Amino acid sequence: WLRRAGIIASIITIIITYLINNYVVTRICTQFGTDHQLLQYLIYVICAMLIVVIYISTHLGYRPLSIKWFYLRCFISLVDEKWMVLSLLRILEHTIGYNSHNALLDDISLQKHQQRAMNVKSELQTLRKYRRELYHGEDLISYDVLETYLTNL
Fold first, then answer.
1. Which of 18, 75, 77, 129 is least enclosed, having the fewest CB within 10 Å?
2. Which segments of 20-137 does DSSP mark as H helices, in order?
3. Structure pTM?
């Protein structure tokens, strides 16, 4: 439902772009004598940015279209604020040269543990929304490994 809302919002944004371009831009350009094409490009860029924001927000908060995007989102959420794991894996040092997190420790409070447990439960529910029987080979193995990991976590 929410993914459809994102698609509908993108379509509405495109329609609004068309209406603004045809009616508002032509009136402003004729009234003030400004460059018509520059204003059109500016409106296209703003609307394209809106579509990208809508698209990204639907994928970050809800079920992504591709299961590989979900794997990436799940991995990022699992290492989020786990500084000791990031130091052990050395992902940030080798890719972007960032090493300030090496001096930080993980938050092991009960409240943070409960929050992470709720996040893992939510990710497991999202994973199970993907139909397992559609995947074969490596994709099926990735699905099973992530499901086992999230179940046992």
1. 129
2. 25-32, 36-61, 67-79, 83-89, 91-96, 110-129
3. 0.55
